[in-house]
Amino acid sequence: MGRQQPRNVLMVVLDTVRKDHLTPYGYDRPTTPELETLAEEAAVFESAVAPAPWTLPVHASMFTGLYPSQHGADQESPYLEDVPTLASALSAAGYDTACYSSNAWITPYTELTRGFDAQDSFFEVLPQDLFSGPLARAWRLVNDNDRLNEVATRLVRLGAQAHEKLASGEGADSKTPAVIDRTRSFIEESESEAGWFAFVNLMDAHLPYYPPEDQREQFAPGVDPADVCQNSKEYNSGARDIDDEEWEAIRGLYDAEIAHMDAQLGRLFAWLRETDQWDDTTVIVCADHGELHGEHDLYGHEFALYEELINVPLLVKHPEIDAGRNEELVELLDLYHTTLDSLSVDAGGVPGATAFDPTRSLLSNEYRAFDGVDSPDIGQRAVLDGDGEEGERGDYAFVEYAQPVIELHHLEEKASEARITLPEDHRAYARMRAARGEAGKYVRADRIPDEGYRLDDDPGEVSSLSSEEDERVAAAERALSRFEDEVGGAWTTPAEASAEDALDEADAETKDRLRELGYLE
């Protein structure tokens, strides 16, 4: 750190966008001409791996540099507690910071916006004041017990119903133009001598798909969004089938949503160039996770750790990174260190913050050179302790996933409506972890069979291999075992749910608020 470099950072998350639908990654439809232009001066990473397949834990990892097991943000405990964020470190160092998002999970309630000087969420699961004060304390109380209980489940159902209503077609107008406008206003009004950090999450490619008419006519001509399956739980539960023609229509709507985000992002890029701020700004564009459209007989981004979900797009523009295709294995949580490095901040001024590590910065020539780290983190130790082929250590990214409670509720509801009984070994109930290397990958789960793949020979993950069948798969399993040891052991025993009442210790105000909402008699 300390070299000449841009003063500002713009970090953009294209929520739920898979890389093979983007023009810079070779997609044959012109969904992202603005990103294709960005790619002319940015590194385009082929093997960027998300630490989880859904929003909350991934953003928490990007904001802390920690794996999900370390920061603990999950739907069963849906908040980031006691961990200083990237924004906290940058604000303490004098940077203006802002977070503008249309994602339901990036709100003050989850504490992912902690540390940002300015923030606005354009779409929340529930109104912000509903998950503040007494109700927030009640949620934490019931979720901080050893096991999920009935009161927590009732609260989840309220959130699920509100989410479904707010995400319906009639209320699903794009918030992206407003997010872009607010980001521009923040940059215009920034007065910090140090610089600014702007974080943006764009939500259009998340179900349901209701793209603007212009993009819809280009990528899904004649398709009425109301005529296709917009509820992934109907398909995943077995209550609804989707034929090839409908999948094509769904993918067309998805592409249209991506094109809309790209066009809006282009507005911001053009303005930064016009105002001579482009060269002074590090630009990071990624997805938090991808999406499945029938691959592996799944729809959406729950219940699996397949490549379409965790191998995400990542483009980084910075003078220290060569433009062009980059095959190096990278982890999305390393964007925490990359941003610190870009702004020459070590986070030491914020007690409890993850210290800057050059071996986890994409800007550093020490990136992934974990041998020189004095106090390796859990992922670094899992890599360092491995036995690589021909004396070379294999490198791995690690992914963690526990059942998403709200999504699971939706799935069970759709199954029940169709008089379908989900078996106990349904993958929706499974917890999973994966070690993902350059060639080998291994996924361990508690309720479904483990899966192993040779990604170099089988990039579509069609044929699962055991560790006995392939050495690269075996090496990935060993790496996963080392990571599991670091985080407290493998998930091998199925998690249990409980109907115990955990509100005995709740104060009177909390109980009164829950009675008003209909959760207590």
From TrEMBL:
<keyword id="KW-0378">Hydrolase</keyword>
<feature type="region of interest" description="Disordered">
    <location>
        <begin position="450"/>
        <end position="521"/>
    </location>
</feature>
<dbReference type="Pfam" id="PF00884">
    <property type="entry name" value="Sulfatase"/>
</dbReference>
<comment type="similarity">
    <text>Belongs to the sulfatase family.</text>
</comment>
<feature type="domain" description="Sulfatase N-terminal">
    <location>
        <begin position="7"/>
        <end position="342"/>
    </location>
</feature>
<dbReference type="InterPro" id="IPR017850">
    <property type="entry name" value="Alkaline_phosphatase_core_sf"/>
</dbReference>
<feature type="compositionally biased region" description="Acidic residues">
    <location>
        <begin position="498"/>
        <end position="507"/>
    </location>
</feature>
<feature type="compositionally biased region" description="Basic and acidic residues">
    <location>
        <begin position="508"/>
        <end position="521"/>
    </location>
</feature>
<dbReference type="InterPro" id="IPR000917">
    <property type="entry name" value="Sulfatase_N"/>
</dbReference>
<feature type="compositionally biased region" description="Basic and acidic residues">
    <location>
        <begin position="472"/>
        <end position="485"/>
    </location>
</feature>
<protein>
    <submittedName>
        <fullName>Sulfatase</fullName>
    </submittedName>
</protein>
<dbReference type="GO" id="GO:0004065">
    <property type="term" value="F:arylsulfatase activity"/>
</dbReference>
<dbReference type="InterPro" id="IPR050738">
    <property type="entry name" value="Sulfatase"/>
</dbReference>
